[in-house]
TrEMBL record, chain A:
The lineage of its organism: Bacteria, Pseudomonadati, Pseudomonadota, Betaproteobacteria, Rhodocyclales. Keywords: 4Fe-4S, Iron, Iron-sulfur, Metal-binding, Oxidoreductase. Pfam families: AFOR_C (PF01314), AFOR_N (PF02730). Coiled coil: none annotated. Belongs to the AOR/FOR family. This is Aldehyde ferredoxin oxidoreductase.
Automatic annotation (TrEMBL), chain B:
SUPFAM superfamilies: MoaD/ThiS (SSF54285). This is MoaD/ThiS family protein.
Amino acid sequence: MGWNRKVLRVNLTAGTCTEEPLNMQWAQDYLGSRGLATKYLVSEIDPKVDPLSADNKMIMATGPLTGTMASTGGRYTVVTKGPLTGAIACSNSGGFFGAELKFAGWDMIIFEGKSPKPVYLYVENDKAELRDAGHLWGKSCWDTEETIKHELQDPLVRVSSIGVAGENQVLFACIVNDLHRAAGRSGVGAVMGSKNLKAVALRGTQGVSGIKDFRAFMKATTEAKKVLADNAVTGQGLPKYGTQVLMNVINEMGALPTRNHRDVQFEDAGKISAEAMHEKRESDGKPQLVTNAACFGCTIACGRISEIDKGHFTVKNSPKYWGASGGLEYEAAWALGAANGVGDLEALQYANLICNEQGMDPISFGATVGAVMELYDMGVITRDMLGIDAPFGSAEALAKMVEMTALGEGFGKEIGQGSKRLCTKFGHPELSMSVKGQEFPAYDSRGIQGMGLTYATSNRGACHLRSYTVASEVLGIPVKTDPLTTDGKPELVKAFQDATAVFDSAGICVFTSFAWTLADVQPQLDAACEGDWSMDKLNEVGERVWNMERMFNNAAGFTAKDDNLPPRLTTEPAKTGPAKGLVNGLAKMLPEYYQVRGWTPDGEPTAETRSRLGL
Amino acid sequence: MRIAFKLFASLTDYLPPERKGNRLELEVEEGVTVADLIHRYNVPERSAHLVLVNGVYIPPAERIRHRLKDADELAIWPPVAGG
């Protein structure tokens, strides 16, 4: 059946943990993880709730394939109303935490209320209890995980926690599991902090039972793994070079946002690329990259494990950062590097380590630093305010700002509010490179037109993981489309959005979609889950999930006006590269997209669309 | 004429030792095509997946007839992806 049929409800106000049956009708309609948890959330909270109030809820959820033999079946999601955006937040993480939740016998945990004092949740199979976390408050994610494992005398406990950033309710704080995997975007860590919930520690020994047709599932997962292994991208490219291989690709195409999107190409892209991570350093003769790594059940293994240069100015007096640890991934390397004009690979890894240690989204942090550097360049933000000079390209300023933000010191408090609030406060809201308050990832939509529509319509604010049209527009997956034209992009974006919602809701990694289509996922789900899981049904589930998220956002107060891009991207043409002279053509794409979606010109699903999808 | 020839990721090894990073400045004859250079440097055809001239994608069928111009930048990757 895929699902454990059990929900753990944790009322932090009352300090209670109770078991509930999973709503199996909803499981048929929304599958699991992202879709099913969102259905629970939108059914239980007021869309206009203050995200950081006790009335908001936060759900950690697995999918039916989480913890199974399906490749990459280790994902879990955190669903809540996001404090960075005020929109639906759904952040997805790998590692081993999600599978452990399944092994403990649960499909999801719903957190509600607010604890009067810091606590952590300990789950050991059927047993669940809140424990005092007074001694953990103020600790980093890394120290929290180590302390809990030591206390429990169990190195196999899996921990998700917030660092000091989440405690301080940095609006882009994330939740970190397994030291360097994170439910990263939209500030889900701030919600956890607002509830005085420091960590969730899991121990599950029950495996996954109840697969509907075990033989068919073995066959389907084996065949699907062969597809991943035989594919040049998932079988060779990603394990060897990781996501970071895109740095030079996107720069070459003139779509690498640089210096807060002033430019679309970065002269030092090569110095912070996957290739640079493989090169031996002059200082110690070692490459930064140590090895690749895989999350639970993953046969791709794209993760990067690196070792920073011990002599680098950021860490020469801090041995705790000298060991092998996670990073750099493409999005982090871009946000900490090109977005700020910083071409020092070791400084980027340092900032990345601090983001992992204290639980911050490096995309939103790095992009906000880009805005600070532009305001510094304009003379709006000064050395007196920052305590350091912060011109574009300053590795020293990046290192200082990541420390200040992570620990809530000085100007770091302003940075921790994200670029939208910061730029508005300093009189230049137009310089926040964000949509719905969430910062852009690493693709400039003047050079990759479909990404403009992707960002503008993403239900969780600017994001590449809701509709990765880069796959088609740049990499030719599944078919090559022209990145410089808007033609056909509304249909392309809708197709990616709906399909991605299914991958996310199944409990698998969206990176499988570089080799798999839904037709590869369908036999795995159909063998695992009770009910008839046809392609038609999966397509309908994806579209239903997307529209449900949209309806929540509309009820929260978002309108078509919020499906927008900063003026820089629609009025300031790209200066170099293939897109030279182009702005993003959102105004042309958006009305077509609403039509394709079956929405009104105001961006609301029509009665007919809602009825068709059972919403 | 002079062009820049750039090979990335696992194709880097096909560049001669005088490369600077992933880049090689080349003096080439007029009329040289994208396919000519791919063959000249023994890049396996199926590995030349993402082929860009000045950042613009050149589909496989056009590589044999796409002639390079002075100061062009030819960049090639094997199948890769990220996110």
